[in-house]
TrEMBL record:
Stated family: Belongs to the glycosyl hydrolase 27 family.
Species: Reticulomyxa filosa
Protein name per its UniProtKB record: Alpha-galactosidase
Keyword Membrane listed: no
Annotated Pfam families: Melibiase_2, Melibiase_C
Amino acid sequence: MSAMLLLYSLVGWLGIAKGLNNGLGLTPQMGWNSWNAFHCNIDQTLIQETIQAMITTNLSSVGYVYVNMDDCWAYARTPGTNVIIPEPTTFPDGIAPLAQLAHANGLKFGLYSDAGNFTCAGRPGSLGYETIDANTYAGWGVDYLKYDNCYDDNIPPETRYPVMRDALNATGRPIFYSMCEWGVDDPWTWCVCFLCIRNAYVRFHPPWILYVLKRDETQCSDPVQTFSNANNVCSGNVPQSSHFHRAGDVGNSWRTTGDISDNWDSMLSNWDNNGPAADAGPGGWNDPDMVFLCCLEVGNGGMTTTEYISHFSLWCIGKAPLIIGCDIRDMSADTKMILMNKEAIAISQDPLGQQCTMVASQNSGNQNVYGTPLSNDGYAIVFLNRWNNSAVNIPVTWTQLGLNSDTSYSIRDLWAHEDLGVYKGSFTAEQVSPHGVMMVRLTPTS
């Protein structure tokens, strides 16, 4: 059988592969993760108490719904079936009752695994067991999977991560897919190569050579074409509005950076190296991490309250996942104040889902203005002062924001929770504190 005839036969058998398209992540995910506060010191009592704390602290009422258990829950695989077994001493009742408890409280439950032979803590990984594990998670009632990148057997992440994506989708249960790939292979640049067969776009998928995620368009060659070139070489229905050539086709969020530490310089480094805004949006988000694994670390004490407010503001306007890393059973008043700022969270969860860009900068890049449009013709701005020794005024014009200079906007300070007045053409954030921000929302007056 010729290679092309074999390819046609496989296409007829497999059908047209679909993207992630699981209906999840229309806004950045919000929740809690166990790793930063507890590492491997987790058990079912901790998870049960955290589920209850999500309710009693009212965190769930402002949108934090995922309770995600990180590494160290897995123990071994069942001989013969290879089904994963939870730690019998720390999770004697298994995982399903924890998911049931979360659901009974209106929450969602998440687990951790790894696209390698082992997890980062040396527990059983999912590489080669993707279908078994996905079916197990779905049977337990899992709603979220954080998928790490240790012990990868030298297999590129572009090959490993789509396999679990397909396995999760095949279960029929919507499971949020958080790729903790650390940004080592620039997941926002991944593209899918297409072959035009029967006027349809078919992805190449190992082991049938029917689908290969490529690092960039230069790695695609005739007769294979990238999505961006498909309209020139194929006829038929070209899904131009879809992100089939980006990481959004693989996961609901993807790490864009390595792990960061709970300090100002590290936080800013991950912020500055986050993935491009154009590659994120409803259904798939750039994830610049927080302190350690995919967390928003407010409450563990490595930064000042002013710095944490800056951090939370940037993650909100940057549409980053808002995953809490501290022990929510024992939060300080400042921690709770930051995490429950409904006005800042509203920027994160705005349905337009557009990640901010830097629109202005001054003093050798030490003061920045980040802006993003909102639904209903609104606009959000964060004025950031990177200096550590003096407050500073930071101006911005409507032209820099891409707004009509003749339009008047009512401006509200989202941390002072007060209206600042109506402005036209420009606005200046006055005396922004060292390592501080001013976060405002613009609403057109007519």
